[in-house]
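To: structure subgroup
Subject: Chain for Friday's discussion

All,

I'm putting the inputs and outputs inline so they're searchable in the archive.
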Amino acid sequence: MTINVGDRLPEATLVKVTADGPDQVKVADYFAGRTVALFAVPGAFTPTCSAQHLPGFLGKADELAAKGVDEIACTAVNDPFVLQAWSKENGAEGVTMLADGNGDFAKAVGLTMDGTKFGLGIRSQRYSMLVEDGVVKQLHVEQPGEFKVSSAEYLLDQI
């Protein structure tokens, strides 16, 4: 079942990429007491993710903060080392990378996609959400092959 606006994020553990290496974080703890703009990409270093999705959130960081967003986070079904390299490659210090290496979070929120026919395995769908104190306040899930409603610009316009 797909998560909906008004739902609390499910229990899961993600891996936060830090300068000191991977750090496991519980979803409930990470999102508690603050507002987070979370976006998910099918994979680091993939074309739309690298050319549009991540740069869009980097470019709109100040505007999101002005509207009350405490942090911008990105999740992907990649290992933390891939997300760390992708962050470094893109100068994305302003976005917290949350690795979902086994896809447990993507499964728990009901937002997986099957990329096996392309050799990608099970990944996360492309989406953005606004989360306040662990509760989904906005959710924007892309249709397959599209990049419209999960952009930073779209999320910003909805806040």
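Points worth raising on Friday:
The chain is about 30% helix and 30% strand.
The helical segments are 27-31, 47-59, 61-66, 80-89, 104-108, 152-158.

D.
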